[in-house]
Amino acid sequence: MVTSFLQVILQSFQRLVEGSSEPVNLSVVILSLLGLNILVKFLLWAWCRTMKDSSSVQALAQDHLNDVIFNIFSTFFPVAGQYLGLWWLDAFGAIVLSIYIIAEWTGTCLYNIRRLTGQAATAADIQQLTYMTYRFSNLIQLIDTVRAYYVGEGLFAEIDIVLPPDTPLSQAHDLGESLQSALERLDTVERAFVHVDYNAVHAIEHRHI
């Protein structure tokens, strides 16, 4: 897609340099079809926007919105250029629209790359996980560590908590399991891992890479 719009930019620059223009002949039928296409794409965008849990559907929503914007302005620029006597407006509009579409899809691509390569959770995500853990049980004496990173659209969260040393194993296990289930009910969390300890003074448990 980026390559095709780069080609549009090159051709538009060529038209600007050469000073060439093409007559615009938009009949009522063509304008009606364009209007229908814009309406359908807008309705599809509105429908896809309601499915926020699916990154694939959100990508479709962005595609539909881009089509709406592109179709509106790709009709406006040549018509306005012809009626205003500005021969360069069509080519200029094509360049602007192409840059917009390239920027939109580049941003989406970079966003997904970050999410798929283990981007660290935001401060707000960490605060939410910490607060929920802190309020979960009076037995939790200390929250030792809270880590979270993205694996796709969801977070993998690791929580280290400290319980009293005399807590029975069965009770410690059940508390950790319940906290894990509660964290995984959050919309942003894909998986949660709760580690239970009896003190916060210990060697680093994981090898640094």
Automatic annotation (TrEMBL):
Protein name per UniProt: Cation efflux protein
Membrane topology: Multi-pass membrane protein
Keyword Cell membrane: no
Molecular function GO labels: monoatomic cation transmembrane transporter activity
Taxonomic placement: Eukaryota, Fungi, Fungi incertae sedis, Mucoromycota, Mortierellomycotina
Example GO BP: inorganic ion homeostasis
Superkingdom in the source lineage: Eukaryota
Domain Cation efflux protein transmembrane: 2-116
Residue spans crossing the bilayer: 29-47, 68-85, 91-113
Keywords: Membrane, Transmembrane, Transmembrane helix, Transport
Subcellular location: Membrane
InterPro entries xref list: Cation_efflux_CTD (IPR027470), Cation_efflux_CTD_sf (IPR036837), Cation_efflux_TM (IPR058533), Cation_efflux_TMD_sf (IPR027469), CDF_Transporter (IPR050291)
GO CC annotations, alphabetized: membrane
Domain Cation efflux protein cytoplasmic: 143-197
